[in-house]
UniProtKB/TrEMBL annotation:
The lineage of its organism: Eukaryota, Metazoa, Chordata, Craniata, Vertebrata. InterPro entries: IS1016-like_transposase, Tnp_ISXO2-like. Residues 49-206 form the ISXO2-like transposase domain. This is ISXO2-like transposase domain-containing protein. NCBIfam families: transpos_IS1595.
Length: 222
């Protein structure tokens, strides 16, 4: 089941996991909803905080429009979507933990409350030179900005945004593979699964499968 969250339908059918693509879609959608409920419960307990000692947080915004195959075909609703995905990626040694929020715009008024809610005061924060981030130092963060029009690695302090840019590529590859951004509802579900995988699935003592069984049991108790 855990592998079914990531494997392509054709691979799972060949492996005998399920008999049809339609059945697999129902199974994987249900499992992703289970993961989504689990990460929301975790968030409500205020355990999703990033930053602090010996860690830094890279922040950025990105578009998750659906890719048209070979650039052909009609442009669906995702091409007209004005929303952004705002990401806060905690980097601590080899650990990466993202918080991903779908936002209508990337203004300071919209992004700053999210940062203050999820990033611990006093944290080291790295961003590009987008104007919405200019006041972070005034709110108690140690802020490093990289102007990508001049350089990709700050020559003075070595700050860069490559961690979160690499994460965007990985997240988009997974979501595009499953056509998980055709609607905002499906995009939110897949963003929550990415969070679940990093915060809960990989951290469980019995691995992703152990955590998944735990969350399935929790859903049945509700």
């Amino acid at each position: 089941l855990a592998q079914g969250l990531r494997k392509r339908h054709v691979d799972m059918i060949e492996d005998g996991v399920c008999g049809s693509s339609k059945s697999l879609t129902r199974v994987t959608t249900h499992l992703r909803k289970v993961c989504g409920r689990a990460i929301r419960r975790y968030e409500r307990r205020r355990k999703m905080k990033v930053g602090g000692r010996r860690a830094f947080v890279a922040i950025d915004e990105s578009k998750f429009r659906h890719k048209r195959k070979y650039g052909r075909g009609r442009r669906g609703p995702t091409w007209r979507r004005s929303s952004w995905v705002f990401g806060m990626l905690e980097v601590k040694h080899s650990r990466r933990r993202p918080i991903l929020k779908l936002v209508k715009n990337r203004s300071r008024r919209r992004l700053l409350p999210i940062i203050r809610k999820y990033v611990r005061p006093g944290s080291h924060v790295i961003s590009d030179s987008w104007g919405a981030y200019n006041t972070l130092a005034q709110h108690g963060y140690i802020h490093y900005q990289v102007n990508h029009q001049q350089h990709f690695v700050h020559p003075g302090n070595g700050a860069h945004t490559q961690h979160i840019e690499r994460a965007w590529r990985n997240y988009k590859e997974d979501i595009y593979r499953y056509r998980g951004n055709l609607t905002e509802k499906s995009l939110k579900m897949n963003l929550r699964f990415i969070e679940w995988n990093s915060w809960l699935g990989r951290q469980h003592r019995n691995g992703i499968l152990g955590r998944l069984f735990k969350d399935i049991r929790a859903c049945h108790k509700v």
